[in-house]
Amino acid sequence: MFSLALLASLLLTCHRADALNNSVQKLPRLGYNTWNAFACNINSSVVLGQAQIMKTSGLLDAGYTAVHLDDCYANLNRTDGKIVANATKFPDGMKNFTNSIKALGFETGIYSDSGWLTCGGYPGSFNNEATDVETFAEWGFEYLKYDNCYIPFDSVTRQNELGRYQRMAEAIAAYAKKTKTLPISLALCEWGWQQVQLWGKTVAQSWRVDDDIEPFWSSIASIINQASFIAPQSDFYGHNDLDMLQVGNTVNGGNLTIEEARSHFTAWALLKSPLLIGTDLKTIGKDYLNILLNKEIIAINQDPVVGASITPFRWGINPDLVSNSSHPAQYWSGQTQTGVVFMLLNTLDTPAPLSFNLTESWAIRAGRQYHVRDLWAHTDNGTAVRNLTVTVPGHGVAALLLTDAGDEPASAGLENECAVWSQCSTHNGTRLDIPA
Ligand code: GAL
Predict the structure, then answer these.
(1) What residue owns the CA closest to ligand 1's atom 11?
(2) Could you list the residue ranges that cross the membrane (predicted)?
């Protein structure tokens, strides 16, 4: 006998048959990655220092439960065919390093490459996939970011990109089977070219959708534009990875304003991207830290019932469905376990009113009214009937959660309204879109 709960969980796990479900990483991964703040200047005390701050600042409690090493942790050459951790950077060895990270309460992640070398010139895993999976697992890592530099000639691979990533996915699966352990979570870093979102989900739990992010509004807007066309590819067990969070980062002279950082964080979270902090937490300002700690936004990213991303229902300044990296889609919505979430982006430099009819979103029920919750102000803002207008600062965002508040009031005089006028008719066939 099927219980309803079992049936519901089967439906949820099965509804994306094209996603790789090997029981790991149902939800987007939340944590820290070393690259954007430290590049190759990493060592165990730098990373442990960041992990400590994750804990004391409340980030761990807020759900950022992983700490990932990126490139440059290894010796330049393999020894006896194996990748070796650099003893100057990790004097106690990698196993002790991951033990220390785990003792603080975190999961761990590491980095390699599907070519001969990593992008920083360290050993890549091509042709050494099985050996390296074993090394990474023995070191204690549960997650692997897998890059795309220094790729072998076609005469060597006789494969496309998918083939090189498949080799690692297969090595991970084989190791898990042999050791009866959970597979390492695989994160593709392929910069989003060649339709990676279509094949990425057959081998991995996440796939990058664009080039490296930078702490400038132009970079944020451009990634949101790219993501607007592929947002539906994210769901449980497979996520568009919009790249690391630049909230409060000052590398290369960049810095997002608070409004820009809020837009960045809202978009990444609601599009169900992994949320990997790429900032030096020793220098992050309190205002920026508070953005990363927005629990109402994180809860939507980590929704255990709805895996789908928000999607645009109207582009706004830019015509619908047209790519524009300065003016990406502005009006977005999606379902959550508690209501319908709206993200309204102001891509202009100055404040602007953003208005929409509620039923422009597929997730809204016509003829109903909705309680409005502001997910940044953390206030309840009354009830919306039919439409909403919000004034949003330049490069800023409004994130609103609408929950059903029953039939709209008759006093509003809204009888005979239609969410969709075309074909809307009285019972005897008088059409509202055709004048009598
Ligand atoms: C890039 C990647 C970055 C970082 C870097 C390391 O290809 O996009 O996120 O991992 O390589 O060298």
Answers:
(1) 119
(2) none
* Residue 281 near residue 262 (C-beta atoms within 8 A): no
Q: Which atom of ligand 1 is nearest to the CA of 118?
A: 12
Closest CA to 106 of 22, 174, 29, 40: 29
- DSSP per-residue string spanning 340-353: EEEEEE--SSS-EE
Q: Tell me how far the alpha carbon of residue 279 lies from the centroid of ligand 1, in angstroms.
A: 15
Where exactly are the structural domains of the chain? Answer: 30-302, 311-407
Calculate how far, in angstroms, residue 119's C-alpha sits from the geometric centre of ligand 1.
6
Q: Assess whether 147 carries a catalytic annotation.
A: yes
Structure tokens, 432: 């509202």
Name the fold adopted by 311-407.
Immunoglobulin-like (2.60.40)
3-state SS assignment for residue 110:
strand
pLDDT tens figures, 320-356: 999 999 999 999 999 999 999 999 999 999 999 999 9
Ligand 1 center to 309 CA (angstroms): 25
Which residue among 33, 72, 114, 147 is best mutated to probe the pocket of ligand 1, counting the most ligand atoms within 8 A of its Cβ?
A: 147
Q: Residue 391: which region, alpha, beta or left (left: phi > 0; alpha: psi -120 to 50)? A: beta
Residues 113, 147, 210, 235: which is the catalytic one? 147
Could you report the average pLDDT of every consecutive run of 10 residues in the chain (436 residues)?
Answer: 46 55 93 97 98 98 98 98 98 98 98 98 98 98 98 95 96 98 96 80 95 96 96 95 93 90 98 97 96 98 98 97 97 98 98 97 96 98 96 98 94 74 89 80
Decide which of 1.10.760.10, 3.40.50.1370, 3.20.20.70, 3.40.50.1860 is the CATH code for 30-302: 3.20.20.70
Q: Residue 207, SS3?
A: strand
